[in-house]
Amino acid sequence: MKEAVMASIVEELHQLDVKGLQCPMPIVKTAKAMKALASGDVIEVIATDPGSVKDFAAWSKATGNDLLESTAVDGVFRFVLRKR
Amino acid sequence: MLELKDRPAEQIVPVVPLERSTAHEKLVIFAWSGDLDKVWPTLILATTAAASGMATTVFFTFWGLFPLVREERRMTGANWMQKMLSVMNRGGIGHMKLSKMQMFGAGSGMMKILAKQHRVASPAELLASAIELGVKLIPCQMTMDMMGLTKADLIDGIEDPAGAMTAMLDAKDAVTLFI
Questions:
Q1: Whole-prediction pTM value?
Q2: Which of A17, A62, A73 lies nearest to residue B21, judging by beta carbons?
Q3: Do A57 and B18 touch (CB under 8 A)?
Q4: Taking chain B, what is the end-to-end CA distance rounded to the nearest angstrom?
Q5: Which residue in the set B10, B14, B51 is minimally distant from A28, CB to CB?
Q6: Partner residues linked to B176 by β-bridges
């Protein structure tokens, strides 16, 4: 029981704001942020670089970190990634 | 941030279940040029490769060595020829020139303004990121000797000077670029 409560607290969503940044900084900053995470951790990245849509899919393929979501709302791109 | 999740997404980009690409895990760039418009893409490619988990090496040779010189070094070299070279071709990541449209400094100045306006990372920022991401930056020993550059003239965080063979060993099973 205690462990289940602990797990739900630990299972927070990590966030990274790279709005305004251009290639390659959204990827570079995400890779840096990922280093601090544990395997299975999930991070939400918010970007405005239109090139990042393809770049995050490619980065996921290159690194094996899962891209769980890739959405666009009003020129803001949101990626949800899970560390391998 | 979280409320974005609840908003209707205009466009859902399909997330394709991806198999991990394992074709090449290494990148080696031979950085020969000291031009701003070549060093910049070199650093973009090196940081991106390192961020994607590739073991990345950049071997800096000939003019390519000068971006690694400490910014504050005004003059390097032991004899008049090496000293003159350093004055005519000032080292440091912030002192590079464009290969075209340089216009006596106006070109590279405008390029820096445009980069700032569009929030493109500067070469200095990318160089710091490369070091932070563990990119191996190797200065060419032969060029250093010939042009009168010492280890003390170069920035911290780079590898010890080495020869072509060291870079070639890394390049054996890597993607290689000569820029």
A1: 0.84
A2: A62
A3: yes
A4: 40
A5: B51
A6: B28
